[in-house]
Structures are given as C-alpha cells and as structure tokens.
Amino acid sequence: MSTPWIQGGLIIGTVEPSHRLYFFEREVRITENGNFVFGLGRDVKPEVQLTEIMPNGDTIKHTFTVEQRTYNEQKITGVPKKTVNVPESALPRIRKEVRAAKKARKVDSELQYFLQKFIWPAKGIISGVYGSRRYYNGVPKRPHYGVDVAAPQGTAVIAPASGVITLVHENMYFSGGTVIMDHGHGISSTFIHLHKAHVKVGDAVKQGQLIAEIGSTGRSTGPHLDWRMNWFDQRLDPQLLMDGLPLPLNTTK
C-alpha cells in the first residue's frame, strides 16, 4: 500500500524488471514482477529524483515533488539536567546498541511483505505522532520517529505485516525492550518500550501473529508501543499507511 509523495511516506511502484533504479544514491531492489519500494524521510527536500537505467544504458531522471509537513513542537523548561543529559558512563552501551539497530535495518532481503496492507500492531489510543520534537530548557532533542499507541502493560503487540525478526533486545538504554522485523527490500518495523518479546532472531512471523507485549521500558513515561518504520536509514511514518485509528481496547474484533 503506497502513500502519497509526502515526508515520511512509503512509495511503491512498478517498472520493467530488466531496468535498474537508483534513489538517494542507493540501487532500488526490483522484484521479478517489477515491483519496487523506497521511503521518504522526515526532512526530505521538496524535490527528489529517481534515476531509471534501461538495459541499453539509456538513463531517465524522474523528478517528483514531495509534500512538506509541519511537525508538532513542545517546549519544556525547568527540566533537571540529569533528566535531559545522558551520563558519560552510558555512552559505550548506547553506541553498541545503536550499531546493532542500524545493522538490523540494513537488511536488504528479497521478501515482499511490504506489498501487504499493513494493520495496526496494537489496540489503544494514539499518544504520540511522527515527526514531533521536544525542546528541553531550550535545547532541541531528536524528533520522534514513530507513532505511539498507549495501552496497559501486557497488551498484545502483533505483526502489522509478515516478516522475519532481525533483532530482539530485552532492554536498550533509550528504547528498552526492542524488536525489529524485516518486511523486505529494506522496509522494516521497529517496536520499542516492550515489556516482553515472544519472538527470537530469525523467526518468520505472519501478519497478525503475537510478537510482544506493550511495556514502559527504556526512557518511557508510561506503558505504550512506539512503532517505527524504515527504508534503510530513511525513517517513515507508519500512520500514513493506516486507515483510521487503532481499535480501542474494549473491541474484540
């Protein structure tokens, strides 16, 4: 399911399978049926180019306009420094965990589960949105790159689409319990602040299968699922792929 050409969007298209495509200086994988996918990050410029190379070497540069978004900003003052700043002693651990997550998101498999219509991975209410940024004592922090679904600890987290698990970590410094799933062609889902994972690295999971439970681990102010999506290093907005809001917890469907 493709989104519009908008910051945070996931773009799916078709091309002759014998052609080659390049986007953001990366060759785009093409299926035997000519399907391809790539993503537009939070701060992508208003114009982007997709380069198409024919079997005879002829090249076409396609230019597309990307809709620019205005993101929510929240300014908070009077926050204690120990709450905002990361202690020096934690930096080696953080760097190791960042490397592990980046490695999982670099997977470029032949899976084609990105072609499925994604479903919400949890029931609850939206408590945080993609792209928003907080300023603590006037200092901007990293933007929020996911959509938050608030629900009690232990609430089921299911696979929004089929895929293969590429990372499971019980307690990362920032994200706490973390699971990353490969949907193919560089598209991945990340689920963080988890209470418990029900999968292990290498597991092939089907859409709707239980993969974890919501928690409040890592740097979290309350139990919720933070669902993030990537095309390699481009951070996408999962909510753009969804029709409506997640189901409330009292719904049995």
Q: Can you tag this structure with a few keywords?
A:
single chain, mainly beta, Glucose Permease (Domain IIA), 2 domains, 2 helices, 19 strands, about 40% strand
Shape: globular
CATH class of the largest domain: Mainly Beta
Largest beta-sheet details: 10 strands, antiparallel
What pattern of helices and strands is seen along the backbone? EEEEEEEHHEEEEEEEEEEEE
Any idea what the CATH architecture of the largest domain is?
Answer: Distorted Sandwich
Number of domains: 2
Mean pLDDT: 94
Residue share in β-strands: 35-45%
- CATH fold topology of the largest domain: Glucose Permease (Domain IIA)
As a whole number of angstroms, the C-alpha radius of gyration is: 19 Å
Instruction: Identify the CATH homologous superfamily of the largest domain.
Output: Glucose Permease (Domain IIA)
Q: How far apart, in Å, are the first and last alpha carbons?
A: 22 Å
Supply the helix-strand structural class: mainly beta
Tally of alpha and pi helices: 2
Query: Helicity level, as a percent range?
Result: under 10%
**Structure summary, number of beta strands:** 19
Low-confidence stretches: none
